[in-house]
Automatic annotation (TrEMBL), chain A:
Major site of localization recorded for this protein: membrane
The organism of origin for this protein: Candidatus Electrothrix aarhusensis
Top-level taxonomic group: Bacteria
Name by which UniProt lists this protein: OmpA family protein
A Pfam family assignment: OmpA
Record has Zinc-finger as a keyword: no
Keywords: Cell outer membrane, Membrane
Domain OmpA-like: 95-209
Automatic annotation (TrEMBL), chain B:
Signal sequence extent: 1-23
InterPro entries in alphabetical order: FecR (IPR006860)
UniProt keyword Cell cycle, yes or no: no
Originating species: Candidatus Electrothrix aarhusensis
Domain spans labelled FecR protein: 58-148
Highest taxon of the lineage: Bacteria
Name recorded for this polypeptide: FecR family protein
Presence of keyword Signal: yes
Alphabetic keyword roster: Signal
Length: 209, 150
């Protein structure tokens, strides 16, 4: 609310400056208005959002850049909001953002479901973290490199994921929370051409969230 | 003969149906629930609590002092402030088939969105609707506040 009232003087000045040309921009009081704010991600990287409706579209690409939109108007004038403005409008929403998922990556010998010795050692740590994060959900995702056919790799990656699931079950992980899937060769850690052996891509990712 | 045909066509249907229809019953779970919140699923009300899993089609509603977070199976995170309502209209996360879809609709209130794997692997599959517009996302995080009609 405070942002809107703060914007009001600026709005009137604009109307004075540009006269009737901008009159259609004024939202009628009966109209709903949405406020959009682009934020940097947790690594400080800023992506992009494009807001569109029948009136057109606008793109936000800077940290804390904001736009107000009604069904009949998309402004091209955007504003960088202060952290205080953001807190005023979104305090409770920001507080409720779930924590990032914990990610673990386990590696395998070529063409096998055999964990490397280093990765094998991580299993107890992963179990400990699962218990700390309860209630949580766990994804176990198998991946392969691009050596051999994609069907073969899809199934190899699934076998790897199932192998890790069994290992975790054997040391006491809760079965109900473990979900297994395979991304095959489609989601490499290190992108390569087809038919390339890449130890870093022969992996199982575990997300605890 | 007829029975055989029926069985065969049933089998065909089962084969055609994407495995996700079985595997991806739950699309995420609730976290950081405070105050009052409700999940509406097929006309039934479920009280929002940490750890409760959510499904596609669920409506999530918070009360005047409520807030909640959702973490999806692709690690997308969405949170709601007080007096807010959101619908999970569509969610498909099948990287093995290369199929993705993520359509969320903020009906009212405030929400935050932080991209997950769907946003990374297929940004064009992510759509976030609000009462006035649709947001397309390129690997990022944003906030929305919908001020309802007076």
């Amino acid at each position: 609310m405070h942002i809107f009232s703060r914007l009001l003087p600026a709005f009137f000045i604009t109307v004075l400056l540009f006269g009737c040309a901008d009159q259609k921009i004024k939202p009628s009081p009966a109209e709903g208005k949405d406020l959009f704010v682009l934020l940097p991600d947790q690594n400080g990287k800023v992506g992009e959002i494009t807001i569109s409706n029948k009136a057109g579209s606008t793109t936000l690409s800077e940290a804390n850049e904001s736009a107000q939109v009604t069904s009949n108007n998309i402004t091209t004038r955007t504003e960088i909001l202060s952290d205080r403005d953001i807190q005023e409008n979104f305090h409770d929403t920001l507080q409720a953002i779930p924590g990032t998922a914990d990610q673990y990556i386990l590696f395998f010998s070529s063409g096998t479901i055999k964990l490397t010795r280093e990765s094998q050692k991580q299993l107890p740590l992963i179990l400990k973290r699962i218990k700390e994060r309860l209630p949580c959900e766990i994804s176990i995702i198998g991946h392969s490199d691009t050596e051999a056919g994609s069907e073969y790799n899809l199934s190899l990656a699934l076998k790897r994921a199932i192998h890790v699931k069994d290992k975790l079950l054997s040391i006491g992980a809760p079965r109900k929370l473990l979900e297994v899937s395979s991304h095959g060769e489609n989601d490499p850690m290190i992108p390569t051409k087809d038919d390339v052996a890449e130890p870093q891509n022969r992996r199982v990712e575990i997300f605890i969230r | 003969m007829l029975r055989k045909k029926i069985i065969l066509s049933l089998l065909a249907v089962l084969l055609i149906m994407p495995p996700a229809a079985f595997a991806q019953e739950f699309v995420g779970g609730l976290r950081k629930v405070t105050g009052s919140g409700t999940i509406i699923r097929g006309g039934q009300q479920i009280i929002a609590k940490d750890g409760i899993r959510i499904k596609m089609g669920d409506k999530l509603i918070t009360g005047p002092n409520g807030a909640l977070g959702v973490i999806f199976t692709d690690n997308t995170r969405i949170s709601l402030g007080s007096d807010s309502e959101i619908k999970i209209d569509d969610y498909i996360f099948q990287p093995d088939q290369g199929t993705f879809s993520f359509l969320t609709e903020l009906v009212q209130g405030t929400a935050s969105y932080i991209s997950g794997t769907i946003g990374k692997l297929s940004p064009k599959s992510v759509r976030f609707k609000t009462p006035t517009a649709v947001v397309g996302v390129r690997g990022t995080s944003f906030l929305v506040k919908a001020t309802p009609k007076k």
